[in-house]
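Interim report, section 4.2 (structural modelling).
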Amino acid sequence: MDRALMTELLEERGEPSYRAAQIWEWMAAGASDYGQMSNLPASLRSELSERVPFSTLTVVDEAHSKDGTIKVLFTTSDGRPIEAVLMRYGDGRRSICVSSQSGCPLTCTFCATGTMKFARNLTTDEIIDQALHLRRIEAVDHCVFMGMGEPMMNFNSVLESCALLPDIGITNRHTAISTVGWVPGIKSLTETRSAVRLALSLHAPNDELRSQLMPVNDRYPIAEVLAACAAHSASVRRKVFVEYVMLDGVNDQPAQAEELAELLNPEIYKVKPIPYNPTGSYGGSDRETIQAFVDTLALNGLSATVRLTRGQDIAAACGQLAATKAAAADAEVPS
Ligand code: SAH
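Predicted structure of the assembly:
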């Protein structure tokens, strides 16, 4: 919802100040139109329907996986593509994955979003509208900023969104911001003393390999990033998650697991190897290789849990749906 437009209309009508909170309460509880908001005057409901679009986003495509994952492709009002995903787990958890930017400026070589053109940061309204859309499907309780974009480059809107998520059912303790290691953002998060969880996309045990996979490593090399993460962990007294996408023959060898265990203090980090959803340039490590990697980490004192893959059949990896659509659209343009 465009909160500025909403406020303007409520002020213009001279509505009492509690109206905005009433509307937000309905939206956060999963209402799907103004008509349901039975404690608002009928004239207000109809004027809202005419003048304030229920969402700042338009749904372009929705893909349903056989494992229950739902991935939604939206466009913003200026036509920028973004994606969000609802993941359903056997233990009842309902986790949403949201985007913080349309496209991403950081060009990680294995990531589909990196191949798209960077458009812009999303507004708080656009981030929250992704969450609200998925909330309308069912009640949700976890959120990860692991959709398109680098959340730490859009810090204020991401944090403002985190402050609204509890109303939708997602506490800050159940929210995680995933970053490439954008050091100023990690430091800002530490300063806020927020309960939001920090996740670091590391993907390599040394600078040489990491710079090949993630050009941002030249700007913020591993030592600097880990120093910021260690300071964060000490300040909030919680572990930092380390994401490590498993690329066949690239970063998945036992010697690399040993190097990783050497690098990461188990008091500070918990490793989450991620099975790779192939998007073109790399292959994903097979199950046995991932298990061997995890076992080597454990032998070296570092515990790791493999993240369940979700929605592989619907291209649910970061940027995949939007990138596929963009490629299809490009293909339709006569050259
Ligand atoms: N820019 C942030 C958040 C977005 S990406 C970050 O990099 O952390 C969220 C996670 O998905 C990152 O760990 C990223 O490396 C991973 N990822 C990207 N493409 C993937 C793919 N094809 N398969 C599996 N994980 C992928």
